[in-house]
Amino acid sequence: MRGSATKIKVEQRGGASSRGSGGHYMLYALVMVVVGFALVTAVRAAPSTSGSVNVGDRQEELIQVIQDLETRRDALELGLVSLRLEIAGLDTRAASSKGLVADFASQTRHFSMAAGLLAVKGPGLEITIADNPRPQEQGLDAEGAIVHDYDLRALVNALWLGGAEAIAVNDERLTQFSAIRCVGATVLVNTTRIASPFVIKAIGDPEILGAALHAESDSRALITEYVKRYGLKLSVQKSAGLEIPEYRGRLTPRKLMPIEET
Question: For the whole prediction, is pTM greater than 0.70?
Answer without folding.
Answer: no
